[in-house]
Design brief:
By secondary structure, this protein is of the alpha+beta class. It contains 1 helix and 6 strands; from the N terminus they run ββββββα. It is globular.
Length: 126
């Protein structure tokens, strides 16, 4: 499903804070320039017609959390967890999000290049 999207998604982790949506913090599971998927370990009252302000405390940077305006696109309650797909609207920290996505893209490219290295098994040390 990730491959069929307009914006490339990246597996990542962040703590999501949105008291208006859920009393417990959520966890981001993947993110793109245009949206992200979140998981909350509690039932959430999700209104897909409403905009929410969320704070994302990203795992890869220790700067201030990103403040984003989002709209839920879908939600599911499965095994005691609420899964929510969010669309990111133009927000206070849109520019910071763009920079973060560029960093994730560069990291992925670096990982891909490293995994494509060839080696000569005859020259390996044992």
């Amino acid at each position: 499903m990730k491959n069929n999207r307009i914006a490339e998604r990246f597996d990542d982790f962040a703590r999501i804070e949105c008291a208006e949506l859920c009393i417990v913090y959520g966890a981001l599971t993947d993110i793109s320039k245009s949206g992200f998927k979140a998981e909350f370990n509690a039932p959430c009252e999700v209104d897909v017609e409403k905009e929410y302000t969320v704070l994302l405390r990203l795992s890869r940077i220790s700067a201030e959390p990103l403040e984003l305006t989002v709209r839920p696109i879908w939600s599911k309650f499965i095994d005691g967890k609420t899964l929510i797909g969010f669309s990111i609207l133009h927000s206070k920290d849109t520019a910071r999000l763009d920079q973060y996505i560029k960093m994730l893209k560069a990291d992925k490219k670096s990982e891909d290049e490293t995994s494509n290295l060839s080696y000569d098994p005859e020259s390996l040390f044992i």
